[in-house]
Amino acid sequence: MTPAVRRRIYGVDFSGAANAGAKIWIAGDPIEGGSLRMEGCFRAEALPGSGRDGGRCLAALRDAMGNHREAAWGLDFPFGLPEALVEDETWEEFLRRFPARYAGALAFRQACRRAASGRELKRLTDRETRTPFSPYNLRVFRQTYHGICDVLAPLVASGSACVLPMQPAQPARPWILEVCPASLLKREGLSVPYKGRTAGHRANRQRILKRVKDMEGVAVVASGVRGAALKDSSGDALDSVLAAVATFRSLRETARLVTASRTPYALEGYVCL
Question: Which residues of the chain have pLDDT under 70?
Fold first, then answer.
């Protein structure tokens, strides 16, 4: 086992909604003997100091991430923009300037669309991993904005975490990686409708969970995790489990992260699968 996967793994299904505490799910998983053990899955409103309100919840999430120094966190929102829309020389400069550049999430989307002449551009990593949307698409722009502005930027500015592969992995800091559950399912041949209340949707969630349990390196999927992922008809709980799997798998293949530390990923961001 490489030193990277001795870290505790957390997968986060992110949301930029006003009631983010009820929308964000976190799967927390320790590593034992080189294998991933899925033992927890809960809403972000359960974090210490959290609640349903988006601002309060994201502050609690930042605290949790910064305080778990021996952890790796996989979050499912874009960590950057297509190179054609980035005015900065480095990703760290882009991150530092981001909060002051836009008045809010809607202003962020409008600015991106103007700069792209109304087109929805994708990053190289989006095209390669077949992510569903552009970072400023109508369905994800709030996630992108709040994820960068309210989570990544404060953590990096305070030196409380490092974001891979755009930054070097520091042993004494938590690591943050970008993941995409939908892309992971495509890679596994499991692109089936699982977000919904019908018996068919639930059966597909069960099918996906079975595949997760059978994946190499996954030792245990606790009954509480299975129950939460099956019960949650939005699919968000299951997405947090998939985010944890993608994070774990990426840290087992550190050579890919080293390669991805070069441009254009170093500027645009990199989806870990």
Answer: 1-6, 255
Q: How many structural domains does the chain have?
A: 1
Task: Classify residue 19 as exposed, middle or buried by CB count within 10 Å of its CB (0-12, 13-18, 19+).
Answer: middle
Query: What kind and span of H or E run contains 74?
Result: strand 71-75
Nearest to residue 14, comparing CAs of 175, 210, 145, 197?
145
Tell me the pTM. 0.94
What's the pLDDT tens digit per position in 49-74? 999 999 999 999 999 999 988 899 99
Quote the domain boundaries for residue 171.
Answer: 3-272
Please choose, from the candidates 9, 40, 35, 65, the residue with its C-alpha nearest in 3D space to the C-alpha of residue 247. Answer: 9
For helices 236-252 and 199-214, give the axis angle rounded to 10 degrees.
20
Q: How far is CA 270 from CA 117, 202, 205, in A?
A: 24, 31, 27
